[in-house]
Every structure is written in C-alpha cells, then in structure tokens.
Amino acid sequence: MPTVEMTVNGKRASAQVEGRTLLVQFLREKLGLTGTHIGCDTSQCGACVVHVDGRAVKSCTLLAVQANGASVTTIEGVANGETLHPMQEAFRDNHGLQCGFCTPGMVMTAIDLVTNNASPSEEEIRHGLEGNICRCTGYHNIVKAVKAGAAAMKG
Amino acid sequence: MTATGIGASVKRKEDFRFLTGRGTYTDDINRPGQSHAYILRSPHAHAEIVKIDTAAAQSSPGVIAVFTGADYDKGGLPAGWQIHSKDGSPMVEPPHFPLCKDRVRHVGDQVALVIAETYAEAKDAAEKIDVTYKELPAIISTADADKPGKPQVWADAKNNVCYDWHLGDKAATEAAFAKAHHVTKIDLVNQRLVPNAMEPRAAVGDYDRATGEYTLYTTSQNPHVIRLLMGAFVLQIPEHKLRVVAPDVGGGFGSKIFHYAEEALVTWAAGKLHRPIKWTAERSESFLTDAQGRDHVSHAELAMDKDGKFLALRVSTIANMGAYLSTFAPCVPTYLYATLLAGVYTTPAIYAEVKAVFTNTVVVDAYRGAGRPEATYLLERLVDKAAREMKMDRVEIRRKNFISREAFPYQTPVALQYDSGDYDATLDGALKASDWAGFESRRAEARKRGKLRGIGISTYIEACGIAPSAVVGSLGARAGLYECGSIRVHPTGSVTVFTGTHSHGQGHETTFAQLVSDTLGISIDSVEVSHGDTNKIPFGMGTYGSRSLAVGGSAIVKAMDKIIAKAKRIAAHLMEASVADVEFKNGTFTVAGTDKSVPFGTVALTAYVPHNYPITELEPGLEETAFYDPLNFTYPGGCHICEVELDPDTGVTKIVNFTAVDDVGRVINPMIVEGQVHGGVAQGIGQALLESCVYDEQSGQLLTGSLMDYCMPRADDLPNFKVATQSTMCTHNPIGAKGVGEVGAIGSPPAIINAVIDALSPLGVQDISMPATPLKVWQAIQSAPAKMAAE
Fold it and tell me: Taking the domain A3-76, which CATH number applies?
C-alpha cells in the first residue's frame, strides 16, 4: 500500500492507504476529520468540498495519492481556535444552515468563491454555489450569508 | 419580549458545532473493533431467487460473515397503521423481511448481507456472490396496477390492491351533484419524489456481551419508535436491553421516520458476530431504498351552483405503496389526505375513494407534507379550473367559498374539526405583499420582452401536530402519538430539557431553550436541550407531521408547570408564606403584598440541599416529566402566490416572485420559522418544476437513480422568497403553536403550476403536469391552440 503525506490544517499527516482511497476517505477515516461529509457518489452534492493548495475541490473526486504533498484545509481548519471565520459567522448570523450536513462544504465553497471574487453579486453567488446542494434552506439564507461573509472578509 | 425570549430571532445554539465540523452524524461514529456491512441488492424489479452461492464471498479477504434470507431467523418490518377497505376487510399486509427469502420485488431489494473488516472488502466480496434469478414480469405504473391481467406483486393482493378505502357521505355527494349548475372535472398526477436528505442513511449496530445490551446508532427522526418497532416486532429484544441513538441527523423530511431493514440487520448481526457493524448508504442506495413520496393518480369533480358556490366534491385516487408497506405508508393517502379535501372551503358534501396498490418499486411513505400536499394540489388546481370555466375571478371564487373567521370551531364533512384560522387575512396579506393588483401591467411589460408572465395562487390548510392518540387509534394507528418532555433543574439552577422529539435541522436546541428560559426566567445559556437517545430521554414519538413544538413543546410546558408548582412550595417554605400567595415571574418567587423574594436558583439549590426544607411534605430534587397527548390536530393554513416568467423559445420557467403568508400559530423564533418556510417552499418548487422519480415501465429500473439524473433544486434554480406569518392561535395546546415544518411544501406546488398555466393561458393551454420542465412547457407552447403573436 502506498504512503501518502500531506499538510492538513497546518499539520503534517501521513498514512498508508489503498490506492483506491479517496481524499475524503483519507480525511475522515485515517485522520478522523469527520467534518468533511459524503453526501453522494457522483460528485454532485459538494458536501465534501475542502481546499487543496488554496483551491476548492470536491474531495470525493480526488484520490488520496493525488493529494500527496499537497496542503489541505478542511472545515476543522477554518476557525481561529474558538473564533469563527467571518464566513462561518455570517452563516450563523443569517441562519444559513439547518441540519448542518451540507454546511462544511458550503462554507468551504463560499470562502473560495469570495477569495476569487471579493464582491460577488447575488447571481454570481447562486451560480457559484451550483455545485453544492442543500435540501433544507432553499438557499435564500445561504445567499444572504455569503453576501454578508464577503463583506466581512473585506473588512 | 427579551432578547432571547419567546418571539425573538435568537441565533441557533447548535450552529457552532455544525459550522466547525464538530457535529456527530451516524457515519462519524466508530466503535472499537468495528466491522463494515455491504448489502447486495437485487438488480431486477421482480424475480424469484433460485439459488445463492456465497462460497467465494465467504473466503474473500477480510470477510467475517455472509448472510442471506435463509439465515435470517427473526421477524419482518411491521406497518404501523392498519386501514380497512370499504367492505370492512383489513388491508393486505405482506411480510417484509430485512433479507429477501425467495423473491425480490424491486430493484434494490436486500439479497445478502456481507460483513468484513473494511467496507471495501465487504463490497469486493459481494461481487463474488453468485445469485441465480428467474426474472418475472414487473408492474410499475400506478394507474395500471389494479387493471386485470397485470403482473402480481403479492399473491394475496388481488389486482395488486392493498386496500380500497373511502371517506365521506356518498349519497349526499351524489345528490348534490344531481342538482349542480356546473361540474368541473380534472385528472391529475402527483408524481413520485425522492426525499434526498443530504445525509445518506447509516446505522451502526453494537452488542455488549457483558450486559447483553444492544445499541443501534441510526439516522432516525424518532429513535424511540425504532426501538419499539425493531425491539418488539422484528428482533424481539426487550426495551431495557436495547438502546437507540439518533445523533446529529442530516435532514429527514419524513424519509428517516421509518424503520428500515438495514437498522435491523446491523443490530441482529452485531449480536451474532459480537462485533460492532457499520452500514452507510451510498447515494445510489438511498435512491433505491429510502422511502419515496407522493405518487397519486386522481380524478376529481367539483359541483357548483350558478354563483360558483361549491356544493360537493368527489375524488377518486390510486396511491402507489411500492413493493411493501413502509411504516406509516397506509395512513398517508387516507387519513392524511382525504381528510384534508375540504381545504379552506365550506363544501358541504365530500366523498373520496382511495385505492392503494402494490408495484415493483421502492416503498412510498410520508415525505414532507405527506398526503396534505396531494390534497392541496388537487383542490387548488381544481378550484382554478372551476374559476376559468365559470368565468369567475380566481381570488373571488376562493373568497366566496372560504370558511369564515367566525365559523370556528368548524366541522368538515371529512372528519376533521378545525379549531382556528382566518383565511381572508392570509389571503389579503399575500395579495398585498405580491402586488397581485399590479400584475397585469407586469404581464404586459413582459410580453413586450417576448416573455410569458403568469401569476398563481393557492389557499391551503393542513392538519398536523400529530396527533390525538384516541382519534388515530380509532382510525387504525397501532401507536399513541403523544409526546414526552422532561425538565431536570440542576442544583446550581441550570436546566437540561429532555425531549422525545428529534431535531435534524429544525433548531429545537434553540427554540425549546427559548421556551424554557423565557418561562423559568433563566439565561438561555443555562438551558441545554437533549434529544435522540433512548437511554437519556424517558420516551418519545419523534419528529414528523410538524408536531415538535405543538406536541413536544406542549409536553415541555406541562413539565415546567410541574416544576413551577413544586418550586412554589419550596419558595413558600423559605419565605414562610402560604403557597397560594406565592407568585413566580421573571425567575423570581415573591409573596403578594410583601417585599419577600427568592430567586429560582436559590429554590433549585434548596431542592438538592434540603437543610431548610418541608421534608415531611415534599421530596427533595427538582425534576419533572410530562406526557402530552394533544386534544386535536393543529391546522396551519395560508396563502401562497407565485409569479413566473416563461421563455417561449426555451420553455424555461423562472420564478420571479414567491410570496407565502402562513398562519402557523404562536411563533417562538421567527428566524427559524422563516427558514422552515423557505425550505418547504424550495421542495415545493422542486416538485412543481424540477423533480420526478422515473422508473422504466418495462424493466423497473430506476432511471433517476443519482443526483445527476434526479433534478434537485440548486441555488441558481430558486428565487428569494417573501415570507410572512399572520397567525391565529391554536386553541387547544398551551403554546398556541400550529406547526411550520410542512406548510411550504404543501401550499406552494399548486401556486406554481397555476402560475405556469396562467402564463400559458393566452395560448389556450389549460393543463400542464408536474414537473413543468422546460421540455414540457416548450411542447405545450408548440402544440397550443393559439400561437404566440410574432414580435
């Protein structure tokens, strides 16, 4: 079995994995980072979005070995200790989550979206969230949250 | 109102853990020594199992055990509700074993259970199981299932009929039709949907050899119900040896109410193998095994007098049950559907016939709204059609037939007694918020841009707050539907609230904490809400039918009443006053007419450190439990208005405005209530425009078996919503709450389709079915009686 090594949330992590192990499985099962979720098997739902070398990636579309040597940030690495990231805070302030299952992926996508477009319009936000499915909120409050999060990230 | 009290939009207590990835969902749980299960499923819709050879799988790397139906020696999954047919005979109730014995009845049916050290090894081994099937013809179509000569799902169910049920006064209805000025008729399909909670179902079974206790961690909306059903009926494990934990659950929408085969299998096999066993559905398995929703084919007729006053309604519906009876399936198209056919109208005579049929498809059961969206869609499409035929205004025909605000309590001809409502008020609110009056100018403006604009309305009612036990018992329920709440006041004055309801997105940890902190006058940070564990919570019936606040919240209020009553006696002792003179307000006990006072915290401490205490009259401690059985259903209602713009070149429907004004009774947290409406409306829009569960009629293969094939609403499919509440109070529970979880999914679909038909009406189009996809709309435009005028 190959050994993979990467930096996850600023810490070195390595483990032996089967070649077929997905990055999301590596994070959840080998590192115990269960904040990254698996909601589908066709890379449609976005519950597993993490940042790999600064880009939002569906971690179910990547083998763990493909992320060898990469720097990965998961939802567990976003807050500063017990202080929420402005985007997390915006989701809380705007009731942008209900059951919480899609939330980690949604927040990771939202941060990436704002990193690439500091002042997204509502249309750009809705388009940007197209790869993340939420069944609870109807997106109304998620869109509001991303807008507020974008403003807070600038501030 | 305080910043965290009843009526305040308090930010949710549960959000921090969800936002930081610290939630604990079932698949996040790993037990020491855990093994993994994979279930081999039927590739055929209908087949005999001739032979299963598991030898190669047994010796596959990592495999611990392989079980088939022949090995399974326990009971089948029970149905929780018995319906009787018109002739008095009980419904056909076929066996439903967690592993098929000799026949598979839908694609995805459970054929073999493989347990291995890793999930991948279990899955690899399952590929080595050699099953010989003898394929049989399958019946898929809801409309055709009861026709003679079709393939039979069950030998006992002649023509695939599970029951042939009716409700209402047939003779009175026929008499009213005989003297009608006009009869409007409609044929409708309420298509099958896949609930698709974002968290796939999962279950971890564990067995403790030291104590003989089983534990099941599962993705459930009602852990006590699972313990009852699985313990008593399926595996025969007594309640004191069976713990069911439903931790954080990632959405349910009904699909996680039911007791599923996989829960029984991992628990059963854990007991046999003395190893914890985890099973987690892949999304493809969710599509093939989670109970699906709706699936009605109906014909309805509305009799009116010359002024458009409704005289009578008759409805005939075929409801698809799938291949087996899921937990609550039999009651959905009967007591949660036909009883709502009066809607918000005074129709004096109603007669409904419902035939439930078996088909070779996944089971159908409650999905957000459960029966009530089907009733609302039927009525509100029918009323719109009646208005067109009678050349009456759509709003006026509704107003003319509304149950007036003075008429409550109002007894309908289909069993229910509505306690309160004001349908004119919610209608007026929605008309104003949506600028209904200004619509025609918007239609004209859109027309100049080459777009077809339409507006649609739905005025609805639903029955929830499920349910008075005696009533549902008389209708065939095999359980009571009360709720349990427990309040534990700790020595230092903080409080743990135990509720038998379950929160999987609804925000109970916040709403219930508001209710308790406001009533007891303590900080919301001193209140913790605990749910989802049968070893912690005395009892519960769970969360569905928008019952959590109306029934579960009422149990909590009753428990608080007991706490306050006992605390007053302690306070009276401390203040050397008569109990009758003690008052409790804002967290402080006082004696009327004096300056004596004792804070709640002091009373709590005294209860646990009873040095100065009326010990001969009163036990120490401050903890109370209450069970609350509602006196009636609750009846949320309201008005939804949808405005759409259609692109005639592409057939794409865009929702440009959506307005919901709902009467949900008392609102504890407006932010959460609005969020519930948003989510419900989104699912209603999904049904109206996007979603449809499609099987191949010949092979029975699920054609929409993934999120690539089944069209879930995404952020760019939906608009912003205008939502407001305009409430009358529920008259029979202590909170006044009616419920909000389902209103969005119930009220919205007919408003949307009525809007699409309104947009197409200049072309002479009178009907379009759900989902109104771009293809369907484009085809309707192409084959319309009138053509679009050239621009």
Answer: 3.10.20.30
